[in-house]
Amino acid sequence: MKPGEIIVNNTDIEVNKGLLGTILNVKNTGDRPIQVGSHYHFFEANPALQFDREKAYGKRLDIPAGAAVRFEPGDEKEIQLVEYRGNRKIYGFHGEVNGSIDESRVYKPNLNSAEAPKIEDDGSKNANKESGYKS
């Protein structure tokens, strides 16, 4: 071992393991590319992104920290969101929350209904995750 060397296991890392995802279709209706980072409150994303905003309240992209999803003008993608964890307080962004998340507004898919079928794919149908629940 060398000083400062980091030894890691040779295994895959699954981000947000065990968290229930909400999958939404998102379309960039603007004339400029839009990029949304991993920890951005998706509910407050650029208004040119067209999607069911109420289902995005209290949620962020289900991608590794530091990553982002880019939407070119006219792009339509299926993305997966997960709920914020920790103390569940959101500050900044567009200033629409600035405090504790209103739990009554957080969308929870009903796993027993046909409304939330589980998606299993090779990743080509979902911009950032291999499985989740369609809202």
From TrEMBL:
Region Disordered, residue ranges: 112-135
Please give a single GO biological process term from the UniProt record. urea catabolic process
> What's a single GO MF annotation on this record?
urease activity
Task: Report the EC code(s) recorded for this entry.
Answer: 3.5.1.5
Q: Which reaction does it catalyse?
A: urea + 2 H2O + H(+) = hydrogencarbonate + 2 NH4(+)
Q: Which InterPro entries match?
A: Urease_beta-like, Urease_betasu_sf, Urease_subunit
| Superkingdom of the organism of origin | Bacteria
Segments crossing the lipid bilayer: none
Q: State which pathway it belongs to.
A: Nitrogen metabolism; urea degradation; CO(2) and NH(3) from urea (urease route): step 1/1
> How is this protein annotated for GO cellular component?
urease complex
Q: Does the keyword Isomerase apply?
A: no
**Which compartments does it reside in?**
Cytoplasm
Keyword annotations from UniProtKB, A to Z: Cytoplasm, Hydrolase
Q: Where is the composition biased (Basic and acidic residues)?
A: 117-135
User: Hydrolase among the record's keywords?
Assistant: yes
**Family classification:** Belongs to the urease beta subunit family.
Q: How does it assemble?
A: Heterotrimer of UreA (gamma), UreB (beta) and UreC (alpha) subunits. Three heterotrimers associate to form the active enzyme.
Q: What protein name does the entry list?
A: Urease subunit beta
Q: What is the lineage of its organism?
A: Bacteria, Bacillati, Bacillota, Bacilli, Bacillales
Give the gene that encodes this protein.
ureB
